[in-house]
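Feature request disguised as a bug report, sorry. It would help if multi-protein outputs had a clear separator. Right now it looks like this:
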Amino acid sequence: MDGTPDSNVNWRRPESDPVSRRSALRPAGGALKTKGQPTTTDEIRVTVCNYPDRANLVLRYVDPITGKQKTKSAKTPDESAAIGKAAVWEEELRTGRYMAPSRMTWQEFRKRVADEKLAPMPRATQEQYRGALNCFERLAGPDRLVKVTATLLTRFSTKARAEGVRETTLHKHLRHLKAVFRWAERQGLLAKCPTFEMPKLPKGQSKGKHRAVTLEEVEKMILAVPKVRPRDAAQWERILWGLWYSGLRLSEAVALTWDDGPFVLDTTGQDPAFYIDSTAQKSRRTEAVPVAPDFVDWILAETPEAERRGRVFPLHSDKTGGNLSHQEAGVVICAIGERSGVVVGTTEKVSRDDAGRIVRTTVNLFPGAHDLRRGFCSKWARKVPAPVLQRLARHSSITTTQSYYIHLTVADITADLRAALGATEGSPKDLGNISGNMARKSPSKRRTEKRRKSLP
């Protein structure tokens, strides 16, 4: 079977085709009168043909851009039904509503995602996407992109839960997968992004796994430094206090310099600030950010003027003498946090017993570098408005600041309420209805009071 049309094939135009119905509008020269210039989709003409080696009729058109012939089965030997389907298909092609089923393999899709979508992203973000795609590939196992459906995503979620994946982790994976498949839809690789059923996460004051550390807990971490790094304790004590006072991410603190670089601390002017290049922070923005005044006071007291050059927090390896990366510094700070005995949260460790059953064990979480940043945000959340705190933390959304970085205990809130009450003059009865006293009176109330005053 060579798949070529019969020599006696009849190439038919559908009678219901809009161009055929408007044939009376054609001038003598044969050109169709239309408004504006015709587009390439106007050149698509679907015809019906009969291949001798096929039971059903075939729909065919020539792609006006590539010049290649495109065919698909009419799925019927009936001529009238095939002509109707040809009219529908032609209309879909001309209006751009038709999307051919993708033949792209999953591995080809992964390569395009890596080369086109992930390449401009920061390395850490790329790792998050790759982790989500690897997990989806392992549990769902699609061999072709067209097989990615809502049913397959539900199956992936079910298998992930059976493996012991936490709801927060599953939620994160699904968010990254949704972004990838929406990108595939925009690129024309998927006809439509499948529907995602996102896990319902528990609601609470903070969405972060770790809570913020307090000043007393930071002091415990400082006492644990010589036990972990006896030969270079001073530089680690300095960066722990620096993270607590500045609210910087560890990668930013390691890159922070006094004089030149993508992340500079300038304390020479009246308003000290961080001057940040787009390559040096997570948001990829170039900006100047105000510095917390207690950090400025502390860092200037700790650093003599003659030493204010180069890195603000130099971290040298006690073995090689070279500068440590922020990943290496993070490992050391986590070890210090664990040695301090401070617990900032709990999580479930998932394993399997000898019978293959899932076993969940509760384990403690110890403070790391980012918990000092959370402590910075919680400390200032009690002193400044939320938009100011967002600016200090350099979050693109205030929701991130409020959901993940602010941890106020009942004792904190009670202390603030007592302080606010003590700052006012008089007894609680004298406070009255603050909102009512401060509110502007309506015109009707003003007229009523005026009439009352005019009465004898």
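(second protein starts here, but nothing in the output says so)
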Amino acid sequence: MKRKMFKYITILLLMSLAIPTAMTAQDSLATATSNDSITAITVTTITETEGVLDTASTLDSGNTAWIIVATILVMLMTVPGLALFYGGLVRQKNVLSIIMQCLFITGVISILWISFGYSWVFGTDYMESDNALGAIIGGWDKVFLSSLTLDTLMEGVNIPEILFAVFQCMFAVITPALIIGAFAERIKFSGYVVFIILWSIIVYNPMAHWVWGGGWMQEMGAIDFAGGTVVHINAGISALVMAVMLGRRKGYRTIGHPFTPHNIPFVFIGTALLWLGWFGFNAGSGLAADGLAANAFLVTHLATCVAAVIWMTLEWILYKKPTIVGFCTGAVAGLVAITPAAGTVDVLGAFFIGGISALTCFVMVAYVKRKLKYDDSLDAFGVHGVGGIVGSILTGVFATQAITGADGAQGALYGDWNQLWIQTVATLASIAYSAILTAILFFIVNKTIGLRVSKEDEAVGLDISQHGELAYSENE
């Protein structure tokens, strides 16, 4: 019954991709007669007061080249970066399932994003028409990027908007991929497919619209330079909900210690690719090759180094040996925490955000998880959820006008306690929205298709039971 239900739901999801096409066709005449909308994020022409001369905006080749590179770097974070990082942490019998889940997300979320996701996040017709749905999504005016041309440029930075759409696509891809770390080694692939598609549409898109697409969080003044709320809190909280509702892996904690990673060199390579890709993630989010990008690059690297070294030191003191996995985990915690603050803090902020994130995430991973006995397999919540919360809140402390400019935001450390309050509200709202919607989606998908594999399939491993493949030959 559940197998038939899976087929029906999959067909409905695929049919939904055709809806934006039809709506685009219906709206094309109206769009043609009313001229292309000039939105807050695009530039078409500059008209002189006499109305005689229209001068087209000039594409900035330097900014464009940089964002192309940044887009490539962000894609590398998911495949192969995250696939190798998570893949190395699981047991040998489950490594291919991690890779397959990352590959699937890259493919299907990219299709959904270009089809209507970008329009839902950065469209403007609902907001401009005061449609009530504008509180949730931007609109349908950019489905399949139909209203964009090669000459449609982003205001202020003069890069093609189609490039911006692809850049943002990579954020939409990696966010659900982060959740994989919570339910690794025990999720049914058919249920995973439907859950991830629904989560990306219902949870990610509205959140991205609220923070980056002109929604209520952006209007409130919440700072999220590259994805503290949209990416890390969103994915991390959803990861915790999934881990708790799905239940612990067979044998978890009964062996006296967590399951041993099967390939630590994979973890190292994955971390190196994530670290490299994060420079595109953070430094690229200003959409320009300028001083702000350079500062984002600097504070990203510094916070990562501080967090990694502190995590390693804690392990060395408490467990007598520093580990590669520990250093890599600390580095990711620092990368996560600096993400929302990368465009607003200086070196001082980077030091403290890196240090505080390492301490907080270490306690969550090493003590709180063990005490509460939930099975967050690869610490998606402990690192991404907690690191995102720490970074989002501390942005309201360490933001400085030395980076944001004379009229820019500043944090509590520099006298503006209101910014800290705004960051707190945005953080709590993100936590609540992600938790509630994820729990609802889990319940629906689990009841209709099923999300947990059988005990037998879990014992033999997801590589064989879900994909019929082995990562390593029998004689190795």
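Even a blank line would do. Unrelated, but nice: The chain has one domain: 59-467.
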